[in-house]
Amino acid sequence: MRRIAHIFQLGLKELISLSHDPVLLILILYSFTFSVYTPSKSAVMDVVNASIAVVNEDDSPAARVIRESFLPPLFLPAAEIPFQSINRAMDTGKYTFVVDVPPKFQQDLAKNANPTIQVVTDATAMSQAGRGPSYIQNIIIPAVTPYWSGAGDPKDRPLVTLDTRGRFNANYEQGWFVAINQVINNISVLAIFLTGAAVLREREHGNIEHLLVMPLQPFELMFAKIWANGLVVVAAAMASLFLVVKGAIGVPIAGSIWLFALGLCIYLFSVTALGIMLATLVRSMPQFGLLAFPVFIVMNLLSGGNTPLESMPVALQKIMQFVPSTHFVAFSQAVLFRDAGVAMVWKSMLFMFAIGAVYTVYTLSRFRKMLAAAQ
């Protein structure tokens, strides 16, 4: 009980020390407010206000209807340019898409002669270039249907049609996914930096020597930093989910908040130990930043939050199974998006706990060596 009391009191010391550090407080506030809200509202890769031009070589009502069908918010009002200006317009980046309506287009439609419309795309705008052509196709087909004699021909109908429905995000709002992903990423980076800063702050301020003369064990010092900084991250993350993600952005949380909080605590058990371990490898905050940022970037890019884990090389997939963020991303998306219960996410929780236990044992040995070197 005395050791538990030591861990609790040392954790309170960590919280008091953090409350007197304005830089870290501003970082926490920014990470779970502006850093979540701004990307979800602005860094959206859907087709929004895409610039488009139409080359009307037919000068028919059907061609004019096509140009008038491109409307905000998907596209800017379509400009009409001559055929010889296509290359120059695309080379200068003036338009993302150019739709070329060929001569005798309406006549061919009336004869059901399958006329071809060319869509020239600026592929440097990767996000819009990937989605834009399908948007254009879906706009053009109903627009020219009144001029198409074979529109109702059963021979032209596909044998199989898709009726797509989005269960958890019916309107395919990409900002919803970005907001949740930002919270997950910021949890990782703050957990690493807060615990690492807590260790280095005591070393730089000379507090390590004061702690060494007290009847304290290394694991008491380490677990105090883990629970104190973990508590701050949990409180900030939950507040961000309710006030920013659900309140300001309007993202519906499908799953159990309490289950997410439990998984978050298990994840922080491992990632805070990782932050302390990284802090034992360096001697100053600048060095810690240079070491921690590459680690966080690898965790961010390869954990499955930005790109599916299944699309990566098999060897890399196996390596990332030993990184806790991989299982936390899968757990968070299952709970928050798909309303998964314990029966569906218990494996991810178990993997996070097992990895955290390994990290903690190794970090404790590194922490003891660091304290021994300070004596």
Structure in a nutshell:
The chain has about 375 residues and is mostly helical. The chain has helices spanning about 1-20, 20-30, 35-40, 60-70, 85-90, 105-110, 125-145, 175-205, 205-210, 220-250, 255-280, 285-300, 315-320, 325-340, 340-375, and strands spanning about 50-55, 80, 95-100, 120. It has two domains: about 1-40 and about 170-375, no CATH class; about 50-155, abc type-2 transporter like domain (abc type-2 transporter like fold, 3-Layer(aba) Sandwich).
> What proportion of the residues form beta strands (DSSP E)?
under 5%
Topology pattern, helix = H, strand = E: HHHEHEHEHEHHHHHHHHH
Largest sheet: 4 strands, mixed
Strand adjacency order, main sheet: 2-1-3-4
DSSP helical segment count = 15
* DSSP, total strands: 4
As for the number of domains, it is 2
CA-atom Rg in angstroms: 28 Å
The helicity comes to 55-70%
Taken from the alpha-carbon principal axes, the silhouette is: elongated
